[in-house]
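Can you please make up a whole protein chain along with its backbone structure tokens because I've never seen that pairing?
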Amino acid sequence: MTAIVPRDGVPPEDDFNVWELLERNLPRSESASPPSDDTAAEPKTPPSRRLKLSLLLRLGDTLGLAFWSYAIIKLFVADIDETVLDATFPSATWLLGYRLLGLMVIIAAVALFLWRWDTAFVIAYVIFFPLIVILWKIPAFIVRRRSWMFAMVAVNSLSIFLRDFRYNIVSKGFALVAAFFVLATSADYFLIPAAFYLAALLFLSTYRVIYRTFESNWFLAVQKRAIDVIVSSSVLRTFTKLDRKKLIQAQGGSLTTVEVNDVLSKIQMGVLVNRAVYFWAYKLDQYRQSRLGLLFNVSAYAWQFMGAAIVFTFLNIAVLKVDSSQFTFSQYPSELAMAVYTVSPGGGVSPA
């Protein structure tokens, strides 16, 4: 029998065993002594401090929800101040000129009952409330649910929002301008282009919804590409790839402490990444088999139906202003009457 002689003192790769190499180089550690009873207990937060923090968070949630709801309604829906005062106290509309003063009174009231740092915390909490909801409250809610399917739905919703963010900002922004012209003017040279734009946007959005119904699951495809990129990443290989040639050369000798720590850290990182990627792929496969993607298709068609009703309402208003003889009515219909007519015949309006 002929013995296999290693070339240049390097044993064949079939004889290489990294575990034996590590076992020979790792120092033998003595059994850990049991913890002593006089170990200092970790300091706990006093109940009064926890109660105070809870009250500050509740106050921030209340003020943040009220402030941002008011701002959104006032900017995009209606002047809520004037509407409420006209419906309740018409003689008090002069107070609208002192809204800034009212805001300062609210801030002063908060500062009166809170100390300076607490006041600054509440004001900052209210200012950044949308970011707090997106980056903290929603993820915390998902974690408390302990449902990976719910988390996948949330991530899928976020990915769809980010995917269509630019399209929605541009298209819906011009749609708001077109809707403004339909409501605010009676000039044909404004009404006709605005109506054509709304009709074209409705056609384009309908095409996008139908096309995405039959295309492959975009969310799963993106996740698959992300896994492939991570696994084949050169950065990941830097932290997980062992220098096999160097370890084979050290098979007959010993490793330094730095080399042993480097091998251990790379093995640990490789195991962690492998388990994380496997778990990620496993949950994606469960999500694919659950058919929750149908939920997004159904919601997309429902949203498209509501959008079509809104667009047709503005189109009918534009047609009414351009040529009112296209409709039959006893008295000139309001915008609300045209909205009712769009959804179902009624509101005192019928087609001519």
Residues 209 and 301 are 7 Å apart (CA to CA). The two ends are 106 Å apart (CA to CA). The beta strands are 327-329, 349-351. The chain is about 70% helix and 0% strand.
